[in-house]
Design a protein that fits this description.
about 475 residues; mainly alpha; 18 helices; about 70% helix; about 0% strand
Amino acid sequence: MLFNSSDFAIFLPIVFVLYWFVARNNLRFQNILLLVASYFFYSCWDWRFLFLLVFSTGLDYFTGIKMAEAKTQPMKKFWFWLSVGINLSFLGVFKYYNFFAESFAASVAHLGWVVHPTALNVILPVGISFYTFHGLSYVIDIYKDRIRPEKDFVDYAVFVSFFPLLVAGPIERATHLLPQIQSKRVFDYQASVDGLRQILWGLFKKIVIADQCARYANGIFDHHTDYSGADHVLGALFFTLQIYGDFSGYSDIALGTARLFGIELLRNFAFPYFSRDIAEFWRRWHISLSTWFRDYLYIPLGGSKGGNWMRIRNTFIIFIVSGFWHGANWTFIIWGFLNALYIMPSILFHTNRNNLDIVAQGRHLPTVRELIAMLVTFSLTVLAWIFFRAPSVEFAFDYIGAIFSESLFTKPMIKMQLYLLIVFFILVEWFGREKPYAIARLELHFPKPLRIAFYYVLALVIFYFSRGEEQFIYFQF
């Protein structure tokens, strides 16, 4: 069930009405309802994989309790590694088996050996990377004695499978979400209205920006030999906007939907394309994943302690692992490697925390220095996204080579309607960059009739550009 589908437009109001009007004063009933709704939501993708979600949830719930009850450290470690090992095994088999098998066959072929690995022709269970990381953070926190295990299975299961975040995040922490699930929730009209506004803006990002950019980005990437260098630049720019509009749009819809049920999810995007360096970009892009790798991989590896070698090693590890998390392809690993290279100067010269504030805070326009810094950072990001989008490493290099050909200075395709939409989108995002999402600032600067008219226009534009139910990019991860 897609957020941008008619099914979800029916599903959400039904759950909302049952949640606030039928189960209004019964927290237990509300949580059971959320769990049933979440499992129904997930089963709409492929009911066969619902078992995998329930099994993973039960495994982490059970091993969490066993770790707390363990009398000795070796026994506690046994239950910990059992949970981690099984979770990563499921992830490895479904997501990475074919990659490793094919890579092994290609490697030994250089030695003259011919190997024909058996490929697994299975569909990747949607959301498996996200709910696996939910569970891993939970069992790691219990193992490190940061939290106590949850004894109520329903509450824990809602934490893992809450439908707004189930298939593409944000990746929540038990310390943040579980207390909300266990606390009495009272209907907040203003919070619900704000949630609807965020949903509206998320749908605009997805349907009007991401899906329209995708039409041209896919056309150029899929037939790139038919296009000029200038068009290759446009293709990369369109994909850059597509992946941001698609994923941050999903996150906006998820956060807005959760707010309808009295729950606040972790913020996942903070206007990353207005970043002034790569370190700032990664503090603002896919925040829940970046902080997950920081807390559960980078810091345990030693973080920034131990001198330059330790910082370099740990930085490359987390970025390459981040790339591999996105998919079983060398293109993702190179994408992670490139970002590690990009961020290295700020790591070595200790400037990675120079830009903690919002760019041009309190001002309408950035300084020339800020503008140049944003353009350089954005350009580096666009280059890396080419590898992320490319089906193979060879394709990516061919694509980049075509950019720097003589045809770079030819006239690119003219898509005036799309260009106008993009300019409008960037202006609204810039205007609202100091708020949790772009159009939240309208409440402070415009009278109510104008705001309502703006929301109706957005809704009409979304309806006009709706062309079927396009999947979200991050569902494949």
